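Let us walk through a complete example step by step. Step one is to write down the protein sequence. Step two is to encode the small molecule, zinc ion, as a SMILES string so that its atoms and bonds are unambiguous. Step three, shown after the inputs, is the structure prediction itself.
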Amino acid sequence: MADPGGVAELAALIAFVAERLDEGEQEAALFHEPTCASAPVAGPMECGCRCPARLLEQARLERGVLHGCLRRVGYMESGGTPDAGDVAFAYMSLRVLALRHRRHPLWQQRCGP
Ligand SMILES: [Zn+2]
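Step three: the predicted structure of the complex.
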């Protein structure tokens, strides 16, 4: 990255995390408890097992963190003088959210190492 922790890296992290959250929400219904009768079908959440709901709840919580970061970065993009602590907090929060997807093919390209 040419500007570590700068606006370009924050934008890349935001896009990367948002895409992973979108994927996670779309794929949540594919995961079931090992004992779920719907597991081989990997269909919608009509089975009632807890796995898809847990994945969606995790995505909802992470999306809340992402939105908090967007507010901080949005302040930067408006030309205001950002609070260095807010920027650092947003950057580190996004790195933590992104890090668990470090094996994703786009990680190195956008956010690595
Ligand atoms: Zn199930």
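Step four is interpretation. The chain has a mean pLDDT of 82.
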